[in-house]
């Protein structure tokens, strides 16, 4: 199977072949173009995973702030689990920390969290602030809104 064909036809086989070529130092056999593409995608995947946990965490913080009377143990568990998952992401990939310092990146996930919080609280999205009302230290602090 040629390098491109195995990538297009059988991704698992392609990954195994590429790993074997790397282990054995068969540099000429490597499918460099696709390897670069996959490595870049892997980095984006890590970033999206962090963003996904942040979005859910922000949604629950908004729900706790705007409907405290409806707060449940399930919400508390979600807050705790999301914070744990974010911490795990940062421990596994410390360079992700820079995204949590980027107000534009935070705002992207905050807008999505507002949309989701509006659906769950049955409030208008306009009820929530346009800009994220929490700083990152609050968002990650287990005692915040506890």
Keywords:
146 residues; mainly alpha; 7 helices; 71% helix
Q: What percentage of amino acids are in beta strands?
A: under 5%
Shape: elongated
Q: Helical element count?
A: 7
The rounded Rg comes to 21 Å
Q: State the helical fraction.
A: over 70%
Overall SS class: mainly alpha
Largest sheet: none
Q: Could you explain the architecture of this structure?
A:
This protein has seven helices and no strands. Helix 3 runs antiparallel to helix 4 (73-92) and helix 3 packs across helix 6 (103-121). It is 71% helix and 0% strand. The N and C termini lie far apart (57 Å). With 146 residues, the chain is mainly α. It has a domain at 46-140.
In short:
With 146 residues, this protein is mainly alpha-helical.
Topology overview:
Elements: H1 3-9, H2 11-24, H3 32-66, H4 73-92, H5 97-100, H6 103-121, H7 136-140
Helix pairs in contact: 1-2, 3-4, 3-6
């Amino acid at each position: 199977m040629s390098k491109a064909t195995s990538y297009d036809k059988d991704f698992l086989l392609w990954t195994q072949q590429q790993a074997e070529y790397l282990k054995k130092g068969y540099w000429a056999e490597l499918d460099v173009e696709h390897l670069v593409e996959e490595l870049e995608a892997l980095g984006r995947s890590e970033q999206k995973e962090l963003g996904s946990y942040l979005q859910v965490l922000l949604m629950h913080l908004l729900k706790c702030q705007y409907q405290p009377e409806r707060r449940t143990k399930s919400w508390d568990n979600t807050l705790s689990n999301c914070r744990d998952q974010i911490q795990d992401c940062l421990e596994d990939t410390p360079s992700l920390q820079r995204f949590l310092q980027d107000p534009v990146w935070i705002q992207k996930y905050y807008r999505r969290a507002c949309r989701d919080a509006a659906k769950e609280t049955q409030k208008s999205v306009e009820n929530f602030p346009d800009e994220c009302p929490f700083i990152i230290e609050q968002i990650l602090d287990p005692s915040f809104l506890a």
